[in-house]
Amino acid sequence: MADTRKASRFIVPAAVAGVAAATIGLVPALAASGDPDLPDITAQQLIEKIAASDTQTLSGTFRISTDLGLPLEGLASGLAGIGGGSGDDSSSASPSTDPAQKLTELVSGTHTLRVAADGPERQKLTLVDGSDEYSLIHNGDDVWAYDSKANEVVHEKGASEGPDKGSADVEKELPATPKALADEVLKAAGDTTSITVGGTAKVAGRDAYQLVIKPKQSGSTVESIKIAVDSATGTPLKFTLASVQGGKPVLDAGFTKVDFGKPDASTFDFKAPEGAKVTEGLDGAEKGEGAGGFGFGPDFGKDFAKGFAPGAGEGGEMNVVGEGWTTIAKIDTGADVPAKTDEAPKEIQGLLDSFGDKVSGKFGSGTVFTTKIVNALVTDDGTVYVGAVTKDALVDAANAAK
Questions:
Q1: Highest CATH level, class, for 300-400
Q2: CA separation for the pair 195, 11 (Å, rounded)
Q3: Rounded CA gap, 61 and 19, in Å?
Q4: Quick one: fold of 2-287?
Q5: 85 and 92 in contact (C-beta within 8 Å)?
Q6: Per residue in 368-377, pLDDT tens?
Q7: What confidence tier does 186 reach under pLDDT thresholds 50, 70, 90?
Q8: Separation of alpha carbons 362 and 390, rounded Å
Q9: What are phi and psi of 22, to 5 degrees?
Q10: Which residue of 13, 26, 40, 229 is most buried, as measured by CB atoms within 10 A?
Q11: What secondary structure does DSSP assign to 20-70, as a single string?
């Protein structure tokens, strides 16, 4: 039963948390040509198959292509400066070696990665950029981050501390069988979501079923989410997120090669190259601010929010309006937004200049920041409305609040 519960953790973000999975879930995916002839299967049976999957070992190569429809190079540079350190401490790792900073590169363009996993104690991910490589290696109690271009290494000890009480409590609340989980997923979909099986596909030479998730509501920016599921193992192989705007998928990341055999133990061995700068942890590690010191601390969300509106995350109140795919988060920051771009904090000047559209209504006036999926309205009185909804939906929500 424990294994079933463990496996169930992977289906929830894939099939229930529509918007969340769409925006942050990098489930490897890339469809190949040729549709295999497989036995018929219902959506519930396919969800059960995913939930019952217990893939512990794999290795392979996959490619991630992301097109959010915004100038992400400027955005990434701005976000990199939010809440960051001065960089003057020679004992600290440079931003290029910090995983939280480095992996922001995946939110734009096309990238190739190599992955390997051998259970919960050993994983390796390598981001390949020409002759340069950036690797994250977890091997037992050790976690290494290595940037070949900078020739820098970050090392963390004590990575394996076992599940905490909170994790155990969550597992107790999860459905105990694949069928029970599938029932919960379909129930959660309710009247707002359509979940169907949309044929078959070839992914990295593997036969796969296509699970198709679509909003039934109007006003969402999501056209569909497609997950290709390995017909033999139940492992998700493909994740494609399409916007109602059409064009290239917002996210199309995929296995080009995959092997479910156990990787050689040496795959997870790491020794710092001669001459490399080695840092024992990042600055946040000693303060307990990061997960293993790698930048995912409790203030990460607050710092991110501050990039969009002064005061966000600092005592601001958040409310949720709407439901399903048209859910909008309303954040009352209590801070006026600078009327002129040159008065704005430097972290958001690029955002205001490059893709902000001025709007007005009963709520007053404000600026809408748009991508192909997530849009945000920041009113001049400091209220933020954000969601995977259209610009008109944001304006309607702001008007309705008055």
A1: alpha beta
A2: 13
A3: 26
A4: outer membrane lipoprotein receptor (LolB), chain A (2.50.20)
A5: yes
A6: 988 899 999 9
A7: confident
A8: 18
A9: -70, -35
A10: 229
A11: HHHHH-------BS---------HHHHHHHHHH----EEEEEEEEEE--SS
Under the banding of pLDDT at 50, 70 and 90, the label for residue 97 is: low
At residue 183, the pLDDT reads 78
Give the largest CA-CA distance in the chain: 64
Alpha-carbon distance 7 to 26, whole Å?
A: 17
- Write a three-state SS string for the chain: CHHHHHHHHHHHHHHCCHHHHHHHCCCCCCCECCCCCCCCCCHHHHHHHHHHCCCCEEEEEEEEEECCCCCHHHHHHHHHCCCCCCCCCCCCCCCCCCHHHHHHHHHCEEEEEEEEEECECEEEEEEEECCEEEEEEEECCEEEEEECCCCEEEEEECCCCCCCHHHHHHHHHCCCCHHHHHHHHHHHHCCCEEEEEEEEEEECCEEEEEEEEEECCCCECEEEEEEEEECCCCCEEEEEEEECCCCCCCEEEEEEEEECCCCCHHHHCCCCCCCCEEEECCHHHHHCCCCCCCCCCCCHHHHHHHCCCCCCCCCCEEEEECCHHHCEEEEECCCCCCCCHHHCCHHHHHHHHHHEEEEEECCEEEEEECCCCCEEEEECCCEEEEECECHHHHHHHHHHCC
Q: What is the DSSP string of 323-345?
A: -GGG-EEEEE---PPPSSGGGS-
282-295 tens-digit pLDDT: 543 333 333 333 33
The pTM of the full predicted model, rounded to 2 decimals, is 0.72
Place of tokens 């008007």: 399
